[in-house]
């Protein structure tokens, strides 16, 4: 029973760390996308959305 509990705890820990990477990637991507859009004169909202989506994917894949 202890092995099962340990496996469940390990799996939960791995999933929560993966979620952190996804959120961190989305935040960094969103900020970067907004900055690039502002610098180039494009829509900041669209730049943040595209950057956030790309950052979330990269954060998930990289982790």
Gyration radius (Cα, Å) is 17 Å
Please tell me what the overall shape is: rod-shaped
Oligomerization state: single chain
Roughly how much helix do the residues carry, as a percent range? over 70%
Quantity of strands, as a count: 0
Main β sheet profile: none
Q: What is the count of helical runs?
A: 2
State the end-to-end distance: 30 Å
Class by helix and strand content? mainly alpha
Task: Output the helix-strand order.
Answer: HH
Regions with little confidence, pLDDT below 50 for 5+ residues: none
Beta-strand percent range? under 5%
Question: Would you tell me the overall average pLDDT?
Answer: 76
Brief account:
The chain has helices at residues 2-40, 44-62.
Protein model, in words:
The longest helix has 39 residues, at 2-40. The protein is mostly helical and 63 residues long. The model has no long low-confidence stretch (mean pLDDT 76). Helices cover 92% and strands 0% of the residues. Helix 1 (2-40) runs antiparallel to helix 2. The protein has helices at 2-40, 44-62. The protein is built from 2 helices and no strands.
């Amino acid at each position: 029973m202890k092995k099962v509990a340990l496996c469940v705890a390990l799996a939960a820990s791995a999933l929560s760390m993966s979620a952190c990477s996804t959120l961190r990637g989305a935040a960094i991507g969103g900020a970067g996308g907004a900055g690039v859009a502002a610098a180039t004169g494009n829509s900041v909202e669209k730049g943040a959305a595209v950057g956030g989506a790309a950052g979330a994917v990269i954060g998930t894949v990289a982790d």
